[in-house]
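User: I'm putting together a teaching handout on how multi-component assemblies are represented. Below are the sequence lines for each component of a complex, exactly as they appear in our records. Could you produce the 3D structure of the whole assembly as structure tokens, so the students can see both representations side by side? Please keep the chain order the same as the input.
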Amino acid sequence: MTERFDLYYWPGLQGRGEFPRLVLEAAEAPYRDMGRLDEAEGGGVSAMMAILETGIGGRIPFAPPFLVEDDRLVAQAAEVSAHLGERLGLAPQAEADRLFARTIALTTADLVAEAHDTHHPVGTGLYYDDQKPEARRRSEEFRRERMPKFLGWYERLLSANPSGFLVGDRLTYVDLGLFQIVEGLRYAFPRRMAAIEANYPRVLALHDRVAAHPPVARYLASPRRLAFNEDGIFRHYPELDGA
Amino acid sequence: MTERFDLYYWPGLQGRGEFPRLVLEAAEAPYRDMGRLDEAEGGGVSAMMAILETGIGGRIPFAPPFLVEDDRLVAQAAEVSAHLGERLGLAPQAEADRLFARTIALTTADLVAEAHDTHHPVGTGLYYDDQKPEARRRSEEFRRERMPKFLGWYERLLSANPSGFLVGDRLTYVDLGLFQIVEGLRYAFPRRMAAIEANYPRVLALHDRVAAHPPVARYLASPRRLAFNEDGIFRHYPELDGA
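Assistant: Of course. Below is the structure of the complete assembly, with chains in the same order as your input.
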């Protein structure tokens, strides 16, 4: 097996690519962030588009992010994160825990999709400006119903696990995912998060623990960690927030 | 390991539970469909709700469907399907193929979520009647942009694989998933599917091949295969369809 991972994602935003990127960074794995790499070195959006067009050996991703590792092509943020976590020592060892970690990762991916749809409830092919009334309505529902439901679920998992991690007794890729969720929700819905986040003390404690994990702390302080912005999944549109 | 699988899902509809159910049926695996089982035998919605409330050994599913197998609890339709496929001989053997199958399964889950959101674009907590204008707009976008994009992607995967299956050289759980997608889209959007489905001959051929697979054919002819209805993911609301 190679010791190199090529992660493909849009440059200029965290987006869904941030979930596998956090796994690579937390594991201090050697990787190339292909979308941000110079075209002269085989990177850039054109290199990514070429793989989306023709795939590699018949394996065609539907959308970024995707990972290329030797003859493997893995797409979908949750699947790339799980695969990397299992490859790089950031996944549980026991089979039952490993399966439940995947369950958590897919649920996190659902939350990400719902956070995205707060600003794109009609369709990804349209601009936010073309779906503002729908976005307002969906965001209200998301803030009132979905945020407490998802955050409450993570809190219940943490209540059931004395280690303070979501599954097993050490840091795994799903903890990194929850860290990113808290970061994203705080960015996109600061008023709502300020109003409710104290209800989820174990979630916040895990967030802080992940942020303090040395490789993660170094990554967050580096220029590789982009700021959130309004091209990503978590977007701060004040009209979509509210306590 | 036990030879028994307990699948938990809402009774009375296919929904997301149909994806793992098809894997169990295609493998002729012994399983209990817990939501449909008598309460006297430990089944019913109350048994499902109890696990959603307290979990099993600290593993709490966010939502149905979920599978209980010994000390394992696995949720998320795509993850349950992948796990069952790998356990029951309906997944690729080679690691690279196995990973790509999971990529396909998660993409299929995205399509399922988008099909659901055509009738619930504002929120799952609201009735369809409370979000009809938004549903009409989202459905138009789904029919015009998303259906061809997803179906075209499956078609390209099949074009690249001479076996006629999505990955590898034999039937796997992701082929069962695509079968269900075609069934669901034909039910929910009959006019749109009639207009475009001939553009995807390999998808249709695989659908027919899955339907003719003897254990699947027996299942489809049995009372265990419920009819589609307007409680499920794929709902036929004529006002949301169109060529």
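A couple of points students might notice: Strands of chain A lie at 5-8, 31-33, 66-69, 72-75. Chain A has a mean pLDDT of 96.
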